[in-house]
From TrEMBL:
Domain of life, per lineage: Bacteria
Organism classification: Bacteria, Bacillati, Actinomycetota, Actinomycetes, Kitasatosporales
InterPro entries associated with the record: CdaR-like_regulators, PucR-like_N, PucR_C-HTH_dom, PucR_C-HTH_sf
Domain PucR C-terminal helix-turn-helix, residue spans: 335-392
One Pfam family, short name: PucR-like_N
Protein name, entry field: Regulatory protein
Annotated ranges, domain PucR-like N-terminal: 17-179
């Protein structure tokens, strides 16, 4: 007995399609699926981006279920469409969260239907099907597309009706999960991403602030930036690589605000990025790093490393400079400063003297004294490196007297 496709909105018969017609269509589905993906992503590049993102498998499954659902409807009009409907509602939710109206999604559905109809006409010629049957197929297909649109509209309306504050709360919770140490299971983060309509990126950049953070900043940020700005250590997360466009957005949004830009890192290292950004802010407060509206960690990596553990550096410096401990303080300071410039620059005595404001002969005299006290330490690569790192760190922290 022929099956009759019906529209859930109109409820009128759309014309009979023989159940056996499904047997002609089903073998075409894999090729048809690939063709629809190619043409839809060419016509609507935004869907190409989504297909290549973390939710790509879900999107592909939704498209596949939409096609299978039509064929199954022909073969068995009473078959459940529960899985298909849930996937289509997700499509609608994503459109709402990403700020598009449903016109783009509807256009993609209808383009897919035109591609399917083109394939059906080819099947009709191949199997000598009657023009009336192909026409009935077209009627049923476009009615089915209206059904897909209606289901996606449910997901779209669901999100639009949800308060903006709820979405903000979900995204703040998501940021907390990403920053957790140790990180929570990936499944928990992925589920929250779906609820918050936020695409999980491979990389991210954190920005740390000095509170309070002006209210105007939130409105100037891209929609996908995660923020937590009302806490004692406010910060935000920019998903993806830090492109020139993203950096320009941050500079505009953070104008006249004290903030530090962390490093771009894999998402699992987000807590490190914000830790480094907060450390740079502290170094600005300490006068080690020059102040600016947006200080970048990238510009101060060596400083961050050298000052990552001051207490340990103090012990390292004490060990390496121990042979100088018995000298009068003023003489010791002059020798230490000469040693710092010498090991840091590898410059000749004349140039070291210019940096210190003393004669080259004085530099040579001090270096001979250092050679006497430190002996093989200056010739040993490991000791020399330890000396250079410790002296650079002490200099950054202002723990020498810069004596000339």
């Amino acid at each position: 007995m022929p099956a009759t496709a019906r529209s859930p909105e109109v409820g009128e018969p759309l014309g009979p399609l023989p159940r056996g017609f499904a047997a002609f269509i089903r073998p075409e589905l894999p090729g048809l699926l690939n063709e629809i993906r190619a043409e839809v992503t060419r016509a609507y590049p935004v869907y190409g981006r989504l297909l290549n993102g973390p939710n790509g498998d879900t999107i592909r499954q939704g498209v596949e279920q939409a096609l299978l659902g039509f064929v199954d409807r022909v073969a068995d009009p009473g078959k459940s469409s529960e899985l298909r409907d849930e996937l289509l509602r997700r499509f609608g939710r994503v459109e709402a969260y990403e700020g598009r109206d449903l016109g783009t999604l509807q256009g993609a559905y209808r383009l897919g239907a035109r591609i399917a109809l083109r394939r059906a006409k080819s099947i009709g010629r191949q199997h000598n099907l009657s023009p009336a049957l192909v026409l009935s197929f077209a009627d049923a297909l476009f009615a089915y597309v209206e059904e897909l649109e209606a289901v996606s509209r449910e997901g779209y309306a669901e999100v639009r009706e949800r308060a903006v504050s709820e979405v903000s709360a979900l995204r703040r919770q998501l940021l907390h999960l990403i920053m957790a140490a140790p990180p929570l299971p990936q499944t928990a983060v992925s589920e929250l991403c779906e609820a918050a309509a936020w695409e999980l990126p491979r990389t991210c950049t954190l920005v740390a602030f000095r509170p309070p953070v002006p209210d105007r900043i939130q409105a100037s940020l891209d929609d996908d930036v995660l923020t937590d700005l009302d806490i004692p250590q406010p910060h935000l997360l920019v998903p993806g690589d830090l492109t020139p466009q993203r950096l320009a957005m941050l500079r505009t949004a953070l104008a006249d605000t004290r903030a530090a830009l962390g490093l771009t890192v894999p998402l699992a290292q987000a807590a490190d990025s914000v830790r480094w950004a907060r450390r740079v802010l502290q170094l600005v407060d300490d006068g080690v790093v020059p102040d600016a509206p947006l200080v970048a960690c990238e510009d101060h990596l060596t400083t961050l490393w050298l000052l990552s553990d001051p207490a340990l550096v103090d012990h390292l410096a004490a060990r390496e400079l121990a042979p100088l401990d018995g000298l009068p303080a003023s003489r010791r300071d002059r020798l230490v400063e000469t040693l710092r410039v010498h090991v840091s620059t590898r410059a000749p005595a004349e140039q070291v003297g210019e940096m210190l404001g003393v004669h080259a002969q004085t530099v040579r005299y001090r270096l001979r004294n250092l050679d006497t006290y430190l002996g093989d330490r200056l010739a040993d690569p490991d000791h020399r490196f330890a000396l250079e790192a410790a002296l650079r760190s002490l200099h950054l922290r202002g723990h020498d007297d810069h004596a000339g």
